[in-house]
């Protein structure tokens, strides 16, 4: 799965550069251990909310890479029929309640999903992925309080990649992420977010506890994005991170670390199978139809209401 | 049966909760039933469905969205209309957009109820807004019932609807009582109601102003025949019914208790001017541009639309009826 997420992002980066993906993406490269580790600890019935940097979470929860890629390309074969794009990719059939373009928005939505599951008497845990930037969104802090007060089965996963776009977390977050969770009485752990197995194991413990009625958990996964905040950044020559810092974190790349744990030969086998899968995904996505402009208002209302057009005749 | 507006909202919530186990209610002080519509719900349906929330509007609104996305049918009560400003992100940028952004995978059957929108004497600047136009502009289904039976019927339909709906219960309509001799029933969203038929002028009145429009229409009956048109749902608006009314009258006045620029009054006038039969320039009576309701009672009333303004607007169409006894052919 690590290889799939990395390969998917590399493929998508290529399609951004060639102009086939409009608007660019927020690449997940470098942070794969978090999405893959957490989702490996989830059961099929569990749910997630994701972020603007969401491809890793969506794939790790089981979405079809071909349909995710078609979504990035704005095609009708996409997960969201080309209506959502990179920042809103969702697959409700797999409990993926959507990537979300607003920082911190997914936290309280996950709390609602957790409340809903409990109210319906279902055994489901909800996971909210968010970045260090979201730690300063009031709604996220409010949602920690609600989850703790009501002992809801939700796991908060803070992917601390060190920067809210360009602003270092060190200059933005007073106290600490885990300290904030602990202040609400939520058990919180700091995890090496470059180590897939460490993330999986910490997430598994929190999910088990939440599912057993033990209330919410909080993980701060220390990680790093190897690419820019957004693909546009490549053109902008920004200097908020030093090349040395990027190189230091690249040395912690989660992929070789995970590959080293595999039996000899298996990594190469997995690489080959992923390459084949992504080749097929690319073919599917590029062959998928573009939606026709007269269907631009379709799906705006769940009851099928068609609003007035913006012009007459 | 004598039915009050607040009791009608309470009945609608009770009946919806009883009819569908997915319906639940979130809000502040709803366990105690402080605003009225949720009175006794906690006793009957329990804390699993009637959820008294801390003062965290953004989180509990997002939570309700999460619940709506996963099979629940939440209602949120906001005791103060300006709390809607706090959750504009949640309602407009999240709830409203999920259906389109997910390509139709997701629906957000969420109802927001504001029992006491607009001015309540003495509540001043931050508790007296009437922001229905913002939601109509954003494309969130928006309902402003004028009477108890409409409040019951429209709230039931809002809860049953698969999309987010905001229901504004104007504070000035809460004292209205109605004698009901029939079974209360849902009323479809998007259907207007003609409260009084007329042939000279159509008055589109929003919410509590329906009652003012009816009083003025009665009073001016010797001079002109006024049709009182209550849109009931501001979005989607019942344009077909308005077109039919203007076919009869050809003259239009809108009375709307919200700010003038980009208000629902502006939309009604624009649409009528573009698409419908008008024999005279249409008029609108609204709050002023950018209105903030001042505290002093006389100032508060001065910025709200009132009957004198409606009378003047109607009379400005000129004498439309001959004095009593005179032969109109002469």
TrEMBL record, chain A:
Please list the GO biological process terms of this entry.
Answer: pyruvate decarboxylation to acetyl-CoA
Q: Which UniProt keywords apply?
A: Oxidoreductase, Thiamine pyrophosphate
Tell me any Pfam family this protein matches.
E1_dh
Q: Which InterPro entries match?
A: DH_E1, PDH_E1_Alpha_Subunit, THDP-binding
Q: Which Gene3D superfamilies match?
A: 3.40.50.970
Provide the Dehydrogenase E1 component domain boundaries. 4-262
The name this protein carries in UniProt is: Acetoin:2,6-dichlorophenolindophenol oxidoreductase subunit alpha
Q: Which organism is it from?
A: Kitasatospora phosalacinea
Automatic annotation (TrEMBL), chain B:
Q: Which residues form the Transketolase-like pyrimidine-binding domain?
A: 3-176
Cofactor(s) the record lists:
thiamine diphosphate
Task: Name the SUPFAM superfamilies for this protein.
Answer: Thiamin diphosphate-binding fold (THDP-binding), TK C-terminal domain-like
Q: Name one GO molecular function term.
A: oxidoreductase activity
Q: Name one Pfam family in it.
A: Transketolase_C
The cross-references to Gene3D superfamilies, in alphabetical order and at most eight, read: 3.40.50.920, 3.40.50.970
Q: Which InterPro entries match?
A: THDP-binding, Transketo_C/PFOR_II, Transketolase-like_Pyr-bd, Transketolase_C
Keywords noted in UniProt: Oxidoreductase, Pyruvate, Thiamine pyrophosphate
* Listed name of the protein: Pyruvate dehydrogenase subunit beta
């Amino acid at each position: 799965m690590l290889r799939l997420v990395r390969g998917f992002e590399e493929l998508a980066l290529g399609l951004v550069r060639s102009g086939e993906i409009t608007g660019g993406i927020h690449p997940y490269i470098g942070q794969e251990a978090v999405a893959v580790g957490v989702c490996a600890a989830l059961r099929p019935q569990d749910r997630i909310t994701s972020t603007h940097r969401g491809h890793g979470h969506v794939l790790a929860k089981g979405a079809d890479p071909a349909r995710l890629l078609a979504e990035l390309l704005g095609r009708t074969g996409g997960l969201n029929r080309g209506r959502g794009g990179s920042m809103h990719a969702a697959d409700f059939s797999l409990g993926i309640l959507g990537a979300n373009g607003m920082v911190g928005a997914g936290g309280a939505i996950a709390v609602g999903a957790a409340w809903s599951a409990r109210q319906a008497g279902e055994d489901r845990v909800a996971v909210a992925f968010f970045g260090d930037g979201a730690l300063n969104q009031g709604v996220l802090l409010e949602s920690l309080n609600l989850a703790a007060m009501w002992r809801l089965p939700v796991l908060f996963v803070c992917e601390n990649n060190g920067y809210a776009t360009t602003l270092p977390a060190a200059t933005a977050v007073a106290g600490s992420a885990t300290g904030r969770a602990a202040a609400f009485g939520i058990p919180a752990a700091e995890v090496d977010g470059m180590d897939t197995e460490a993330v999986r194991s910490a997430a598994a413990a929190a999910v088990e506890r939440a599912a057993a009625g033990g209330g919410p958990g909080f993980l701060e996964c220390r990680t790093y994005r190897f690419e820019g905040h957004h693909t546009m950044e490549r053109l902008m020559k920004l200097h908020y991170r030093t090349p040395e810092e990027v190189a230091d974190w690249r040395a912690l790349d989660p992929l070789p670390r995970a590959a080293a744990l595999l039996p000899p030969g298996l990594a190469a086998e997995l690489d080959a199978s992923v390459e084949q899968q992504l080749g097929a995904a690319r073919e599917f996505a590029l062959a998928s139809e573009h939606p026709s402009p007269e269907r631009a208002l379709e799906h705006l209302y769940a009851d099928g209401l068609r609003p007035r057009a913006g012009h007459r005749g | 049966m004598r039915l009050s507006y607040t009791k009608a909202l309470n009945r609608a919530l009770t009946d919806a909760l009883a009819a569908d186990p997915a319906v639940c209610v979130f809000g502040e002080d709803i366990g105690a039933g402080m605003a009225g519509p949720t009175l006794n719900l906690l006793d009957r349906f329990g804390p699993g469905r009637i959820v008294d929330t801390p003062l965290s509007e953004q989180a509990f609104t997002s939570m309700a969205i999460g619940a709506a996305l996963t099979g629940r049918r939440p209602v949120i009560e906001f005791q103060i209309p300006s709390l809607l400003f706090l959750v504009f992100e949640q309602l407009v940028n999240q709830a409203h957009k999920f259906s389109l952004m997910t390509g139709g995978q997701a629906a957000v059957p969420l109802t927001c109820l504001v029992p006491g929108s607009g001015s309540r004497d003495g509540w001043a600047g931050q508790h007296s807004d009437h922001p229905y136009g913002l939601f109509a502009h954003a494309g969130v289904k928006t309902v402003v019932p004028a009477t108890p039976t409409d409040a019951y019927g429209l709230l039931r339909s809002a809860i049953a609807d698969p999309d987010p709906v905001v229901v504004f219960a104007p504070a000035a309509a809460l004292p209205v009582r109605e004698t009901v001799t029939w079974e209360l029933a849902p009323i479809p969203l998007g259907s207007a109601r003609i409260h009084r038929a007329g042939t000279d002028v159509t008055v589109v009145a929003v919410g509590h102003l329906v009652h003012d429009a009816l009083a003025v229409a009665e009073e001016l009956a010797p001079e002109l025949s006024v049709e009182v048109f209550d849109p009931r749902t501001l979005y989607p608006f019942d344009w077909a019914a308005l077109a039919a009314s203007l076919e009869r009258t050809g003259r239009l006045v809108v009375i709307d208790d919200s700010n003038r620029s980009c208000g629902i009054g502006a939309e009604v006038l624009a649409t009528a001017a573009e698409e419908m039969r008008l024999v005279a320039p249409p008029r609108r009576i609204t709050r002023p541009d950018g209105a903030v309701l001042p505290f002093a009672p006389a100032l508060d009333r001065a910025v709200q639309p009132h009957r004198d303004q409606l009378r003047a607007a109607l009379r400005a169409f000129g004498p439309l009826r001959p004095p009593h006894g005179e032969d109109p052919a002469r």
